[in-house]
């Protein structure tokens, strides 16, 4: 009896499976990117079929310029707009968010362009950067004057100082994060794993490598969508403004302090941009310093290349036909995962899987090395949908690193530096968070030294991403 049931159940499952496969086969247009189960590899773009949803994963840098030109149909704004309903925004608000999604006049498309000018090089960016540098410098001063080494977790410290500096700079005197309760709520939201991540993680480890990256990317795409949603409310602002800066700063600090030679070289470079006056006060103009330290800048860029994990989600709003005839169907999701772009050997060379702090600062093409393809460098997104906070974020991360390197020795309590695992990093984080913090001691290099840290101003972007590069490529 039991076996009859099993056979019938088996038969039903088999029939369902075959018909689903047939359905997938029938609904997959021959002109669409190949579905991944065809097992054809080295594809520039491929389709992942999920129930009721197709996801195109971009696997070639070559397709990016073409896709970015099609920004009306390959849309990031649509993700933000779709998200509005989840947070229970009013009908009117939703109507406005969905209006004119394919034109630069639509709300969801245009709002980032209203905030971008105030975050681009100029007086307003200088003002928030100056405030941030003030806070960073004051925090370090209070640590230097405690009369001895300060023990802390490197991640805990990075997060605390970056959140203090960023929120003071962006929110100003009304900064709501001065309230310990609000600050704590934010921490909880940004570092707790969402309920699905365990399951998704388990599924991902069981799939072939090529697939696990994609499955993780889907989880991430979903979470980015949630996070874009939240951006509609205050927690949403916090995600856009805060969620990437601290984890990124932590990785930069980790790479520099854990490598004695790199630390030495960067300290040397920084020291040349600092001067002592007749009263033995040491002066740093952070704006001039940042412009004079290519090694530090390159290490920051390489850290973002090596660790960024944002999935670059887009929605296809209208059928799109690519130059080679490939069809992208309306209603699908498209992803340009940084993890794929940042490890592409055709863009970065055979050592793409290695951390090389000189990759960006070395003269392009020197020592017979491949000149990196900057279109494949996407920590801040790209094209029409490029992070408007990138100049500010870069200023802050470079400033905290420069001050820490100039003023402290950072020594692991365990005796040596070990790169932490990141298996339990919450998928909403654009840079992986360490499973366990590294306990360190901050030892002031010269407690008696007095520092005067300022930020005069900058009128040119640093050229970190290709969109901002002047005569770079
Ligand atoms: C290292 C730090 C940061 C990184 C890596 C980062 C990265 C990104 C990425 C990848 C996107 C989405 C674009 C895409 O998917 O192509 C984005 C969007 C955005 N970021 Fe950042 N970001 C950082 C810091 C900041 C800061 C400090 C602010 C504000 C002060 C900010 C404000 C925004 C806003 C408002 C958007 C939405 C733009 C839109 O909807 O078009 N970001 N960021
Ligand atoms: C993605 O591109 C890489 C590098 O060309 C290739 O090895 C891999 O097979 C491609 N993935 C798919 C699914 O085609």
Automatic annotation (TrEMBL):
<dbReference type="InterPro" id="IPR053007">
    <property type="entry name" value="CYP450_monoxygenase_sec-met"/>
</dbReference>
<keyword id="KW-1133">Transmembrane helix</keyword>
<comment type="similarity">
    <text>Belongs to the cytochrome P450 family.</text>
</comment>
<protein>
    <submittedName>
        <fullName>Cytochrome P450 oxidoreductase</fullName>
    </submittedName>
</protein>
<dbReference type="InterPro" id="IPR001128">
    <property type="entry name" value="Cyt_P450"/>
</dbReference>
<keyword id="KW-0503">Monooxygenase</keyword>
<keyword id="KW-0479">Metal-binding</keyword>
<dbReference type="InterPro" id="IPR002403">
    <property type="entry name" value="Cyt_P450_E_grp-IV"/>
</dbReference>
<feature type="transmembrane region" description="Helical">
    <location>
        <begin position="6"/>
        <end position="24"/>
    </location>
</feature>
<keyword id="KW-0472">Membrane</keyword>
<dbReference type="InterPro" id="IPR036396">
    <property type="entry name" value="Cyt_P450_sf"/>
</dbReference>
<keyword id="KW-0408">Iron</keyword>
<keyword id="KW-0812">Transmembrane</keyword>
<keyword id="KW-0560">Oxidoreductase</keyword>
<dbReference type="Pfam" id="PF00067">
    <property type="entry name" value="p450"/>
</dbReference>
């Amino acid at each position: 009896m039991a076996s009859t049931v099993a056979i019938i159940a088996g038969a039903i499952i088999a029939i369902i499976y075959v018909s689903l496969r047939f359905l997938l086969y029938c609904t997959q247009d021959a002109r669409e990117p190949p579905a991944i189960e065809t097992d054809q590899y080295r594809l520039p773009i491929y389709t992942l079929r999920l129930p009721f949803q197709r996801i195109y994963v971009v696997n070639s840098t070559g397709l990016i310029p073409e896709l970015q030109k099609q920004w009306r149909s390959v849309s990031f704004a649509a993700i933000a707009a779709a998200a509005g309903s989840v947070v229970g925004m009013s009908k009117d608000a939703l109507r406005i968010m969905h209006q004119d999604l394919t034109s630069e006049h639509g709300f969801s498309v245009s709002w980032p362009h209203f905030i971008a000018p105030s975050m681009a090089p100029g007086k307003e960016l200088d003002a928030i950067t100056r405030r941030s540098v003030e806070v960073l410098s004051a925090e370090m001063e209070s640590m230097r004057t405690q009369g001895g080494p300060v023990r802390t977790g490197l991640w805990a410290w990075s997060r605390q100082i970056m959140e203090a500096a960023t929120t003071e700079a962006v929110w100003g005197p009304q900064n709501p994060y001065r309230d310990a309760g609000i600050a704590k709520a934010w921490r909880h939201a940004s570092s707790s794993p969402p309920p699905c991540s365990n399951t998704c993680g388990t599924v991902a480890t069981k799939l072939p490598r090529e697939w696990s990256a994609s499955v993780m990317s889907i989880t991430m795409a979903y979470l980015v969508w949630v996070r874009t949603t939240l951006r509609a409310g205050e927690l949403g602002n916090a995600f856009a403004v805060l969620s990437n800066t601290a984890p990124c700063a932590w990785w930069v600090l980790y790479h520099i302090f854990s490598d004695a030679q790199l630390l030495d070289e960067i300290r040397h470079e920084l020291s040349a941009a600092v001067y002592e006056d007749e009263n033995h006060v040491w002066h740093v103009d952070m704006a001039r310093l940042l412009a004079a330290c290519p090694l530090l800048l390159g290490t920051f860029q390489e850290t973002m290349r090596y660790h960024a994990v944002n999935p670059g989600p887009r929605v296809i709003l209208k059928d799109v036909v690519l130059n080679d005839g490939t069809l992208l169907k309306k209603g699908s999701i498209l992803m340009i995962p940084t993890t794929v772009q940042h490890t592409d050997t055709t863009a970065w060379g055979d050592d793409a899987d290695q951390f090389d702090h000189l990759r960006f600062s070395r003269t392009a093409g020197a020592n017979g090395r491949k000149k990196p393809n900057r279109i494949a460098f996407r920590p801040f997104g790209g094209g029409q949908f490029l992070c408007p906070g990138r100049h500010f974020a870069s200023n802050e991360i470079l400033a905290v690193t420069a001050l820490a390197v100039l003023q402290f020795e950072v020594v692991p309590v365990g005796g040596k530096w070990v790169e932490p695992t990141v298996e339990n990093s919450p998928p909403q984080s654009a840079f992986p968070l360490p499973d366990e913090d590294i306990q360190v001691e901050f030892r002031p290099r010269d407690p008696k030294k007095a520092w005067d840290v300022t930020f005069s101003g900058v009128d040119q972007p640093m050229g970190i991403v290709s969109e901002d590069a002047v005569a770079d490529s």
